[in-house]
Amino acid sequence: MDEDCHVYRPGVLDVVGGRIEWVGEATVAPATDLPERRVGGLLMPGLVNAHGHSSMTLLRGAGDELPLARWLSEAIWPKEARLTPDDVWWGMQLGCAELLRAGVTTTCEMYLHSRAVADAALGAGIRCVVTPGIFDLPGAGPGATWQRLLEDAAQLHEDLDGRNERVCVGLGPHAAYTLPSDGLTAVAKVATELDALVHVHVAESRAEDEVVRKRHGCGAPELFARTGILDCRVLAAHAVWLEDAELDLFARHDVAVAHCPQSNAKLGSGIARVPAMLARGLRVGIGTDGPASNGNLDLWEELRLSPLLARAVACDASALGTIEALRLATSGGAAVLGLDCGVLAAGRLADFVRLEFDDAAFVPARRDGEILALLVWAASSRLVTDVWVAGRHRVESGVCRNVDEPRARREVATRARRLAGA
Ligand SMILES: [Zn+2]
Q1: SS (H, E, C) the chain
Q2: Which of 81, 184, 320, 334 has its CA 20 to 30 A from that of 152?
Q3: What is the pLDDT of residue 144?
């Protein structure tokens, strides 16, 4: 996924200290005394999940067929109010295993009890941008005001950001409709002081967008401009119901977007205008959203759905290109998070995955371009066999080395029953 989308056959990848030192054709690879390993198959950058709440494995299946507002207030928030840090840790362990086995090496997470999210991600071996949720809702649990959640988030940033190269900490103001405007102003101030990523839901459903416009006399983008949020590094999740002028405003402030087509489709929220965003030069990545609003954490589905929906809506087979779709899942995701992964090139983070290449999905591809196209249209997570994060082998022959998956499944099942029953 370098600029020219080179394919090296056969290729060599040199990894030293968690970064890629050299990549290219095997015939011209530099000699080395370091251990060599023949892995076969197809190596590509690990996928980057730009928007997730992976601990919601605890709530998978909740509230099917409800629209966003009722899904949140009836099926999700009452259960989230009863979550403990231990619940979130186990939910995230199971989520990380699912992500890693699908070839996702980085995930950007917004949730409650974020110290547990970060701990679980570190333990599982995934790379994680942790953005503690900040909002005024019963779901935050008793006594949790947005002020306290913001203080906790700033404390987590101080404790964890930069301490381990696999975890960084941003801020997760939930949305324009779940925080008062003075809360948004306060978040912007802290984010500026910390130079932290601001990860926020934006215009996910039409009903939500109408609530914001009625309350503030403008849409979320204008409200974010007024409260200083747009002066920060912003990652806007969803961004479905935005007008041209609002996309222009985002472009002027270099706002990045996490496109979540499967979650948006499942909740009947709509389809974000990704081609219009890319035409304005916006950075765009793709996200699963949580496993409760998506169904699973398999980012290959978003990788395919993004061009499928864009082309179906535009009645144009070139509306979102095949290589562009691959970029959304890899280098695009890295760009929206400000990370050095998503490309196999010297100097980049050594996050990469191996796919089985001896499969019908790649028959009869011969030219490089055909292989890249079949990666999008015929391959899937089922072909991912091995995963490395920061050069460390995290999934080996389909098995997640750092997560006790049978135990995680039992823990999540037991905890989910408690959350559903009370
Ligand atoms: Zn979300």
Answers
A1: CCCCCCCCCCEEEEEECCEEEEEEEHHHCCCCCCCCCCCCCEEEECEEEEEECHHHHHHCCCCCCCCHHHHHHHHHHHHHCCCCHHHHHHHHHHHHHHHHHCCEEEEEEEECCHHHHHHHHHHHCCEEEEEEEECCCHHHCCCCCHHHHHHHHHHHHHHHCCCCCCEEECEEECECCCCCHHHHHHHHHHHHHHCCEEEEEECCCHHHHHHHHHHHCCCHHHHHHHCCHHHCEEEEEECCCCCHHHHHHHHHCCCEEEECHHHHHHCCCCCCCHHHHHHCCCCEEECCCCHHHHCCCCHHHHHHHHHHHHHHHHCCCCCCCHHHHHHHHCHHHHHHHCCCCCCCCCCCECCEEEECCCCHHHCCCCCHHHHHHHHHHCCCHHHEEEEEECCEEEEECCEECCCCHHHHHHHHHHHHHHHHHC
A2: 334
A3: 82
